[in-house]
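Sequence only, no structure available. Ideas?
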Amino acid sequence: MSLLMDVRDLRVRYAMPRTALFAKRIGLEAVRGVSFAIERGQALGIVGESGSGKTTAAMASIRLTKAEGGEVLFEGDDLLQLDAAAMRQRRRDIQLIFQDPYSSLNPRSRVADIVREPLDLMGIGPPAERVERVQELFALVGLRQDQLNLFPHQFSGGQRQRVSIARALATKPMLLVCDEPVSALDVAIQAQILNLLAELKGQQGLSYLFISHDLGVVRHICDEVAVMYLGKIVESGPTAELFRQPRHPYTQAILAAAPSLTRRRSRGNVRPLKIAGDPPSPIDPPAGCAFTDRCPKAMERCRLEAPARVADGSRTLACHFP
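Reply:
I predicted one. Tokens follow.
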């Protein structure tokens, strides 16, 4: 395998409204120096609580949110430095599956036109081939040919998400960014869509950047996992290894709290931790470790010194006392 995307020190900052006419403008640090890599044919899952910055990091890495700094190398090209025309060409290789299939499809368009739209916008292939491509995509995602001329409201939620997946695959991308793609669906339908994504990954050689708060979903489909907390990655590593033996206190806590996981307490596993309270404000992040006030293992060093993210075998950790 070879490297497809390499994100280095990505930063996103939102300017907040002034509280008074001459007051200093403050910023919200949504993503604070995030780095990760995606191999060809592999899936990376980014997990964390709401507000941790996982979706913002993903959107900034594909230039749907403006980044303040960092590098996003895609096949060696820094996406953050490409001009509009070059980035438009790169859009063929990077597509997005949205969270809500009910609002991401145009209700006034027939689904065949929705799936065909990326081909028309990017001028891919002659018109006759585009029609054939849409029919091929419908078969690929498990939809029938007699459904081509229906409207989105005539489909169930799971079928709409299949339409969204077909649309994302139209340009034959190398990377799919999946932003909570099954969170709006019933549990039984979630399993069908996840199985479809897993099959497509093997058949089409796709890479995924998978954003989710559901750890059971991430364990099912992702090869690597990165855990985010207050705009930073605190632990990352191979999925099976990280789920078997989480080393960061925050990772231990969210795994213990996940209702979709039934973890065996085998010998060598760390004892799960429980956390209370809310994360600190991203407007004024603490000088030390952002998890200090919620961590039962915190020491004075944690309050004073932010832990660096360091490699430890196949894992990376940002913790003074893992």
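DSSP finds ten helices and twelve strands in the chain.
Hope that gets you unstuck.
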